[in-house]
Amino acid sequence: MRGAVARLRTPFPIGSTLPGLYSEDAFAQSLCMALDEVLAPIVSTIDGFAAYLDPDTTPEDMIGWLASWLGLTLDHNQSPERQRELVRVGVELLRWRGTERGVREAVAAAFGSEPRVRESGGASWSADPGGELPGSAAARLEVRLGVSDPETFDLRRLDLLVAAVKPAHMPHTVQVQALSGD
């Protein structure tokens, strides 16, 4: 329950469901009205629960809760609109978590700039046994992001994000560079 709302009326008053014998009993009706006042926010929350699950309609203080369902950690320095967008994108990113595409899209969503991502793995198939494996034996992931001011950029945020969306066993490095003026 998010809290009491002054003068919130319930769509299901308890007093009207009592047997006729109690419809004129002032004590029974006042007791039911007190229960209605306590239950009205609960009924309202349950009726509007779908709105809490939508990043466009959830209250601002619930965006972080919604993000936590997806395993996302939001930066509270970002605007609520940006946080809502990250939750929206996060649903799609779950499909690609741990892949090169997932890392690239997560960094692009968080920082608004497309990174260069290089990873050492590969995949292929062969009808002949004993074929050469793709990629390199040493696992590694490199993420390079172009930013407007590398001196003031918080590299730790980028590092934490990449660590969260990459495969757990894979070591990674992150770098930032000044955006080229092409």
Question: Layout of SSEs?
Answer:
Layout: H1 26-47, H2 49-52, H3 63-69, H4 80-93, H5 100-111, E1 116-119, E2 141-147, H6 155-165, E3 172-178
Parallel strand pairs: 2-3
Antiparallel strand pairs: 1-2
Helix pairs in contact: 3-4, 4-5, 5-6
Biggest β-sheet: strands ordered side by side in the sheet? 1-2-3
Strand percentage lies at 5-15%
Number of strands: 3
The level-1 CATH class of the domain at 99-182: Alpha Beta
Radius of gyration: 26 Å
Total helix count? 6
What is the CATH T-level topology of the domain at 99-182?
A: GMP Synthetase, Chain A, domain 3
Helical residues, percent: 25-40%
Gross geometry: elongated
CATH architecture of the domain at 99-182: 2-Layer Sandwich
What is the mean pLDDT?
87
Low-confidence stretches: none
Order of helices and strands: HHHHHEEHE
The assigned structural class equals alpha+beta
Distance between the termini: 53 Å
User: Biggest β-sheet: count, sense, barrel?
Assistant: 3 strands, mixed
Describe it.
The protein is an alpha+beta fold and 182 residues long. Among the domains are: 33 residues, no CATH class; 84 residues, GMP Synthetase, Chain A, domain 3. It has six helices and three strands, in the order αααααββαβ. The protein has a three-stranded mixed beta sheet with strand order 1-2-3, with helices on one face. β2, α6 and β3 form a beta-alpha-beta unit. It starts with 25 loop residues before the first helix and ends with a strand. The mean pLDDT is 87.
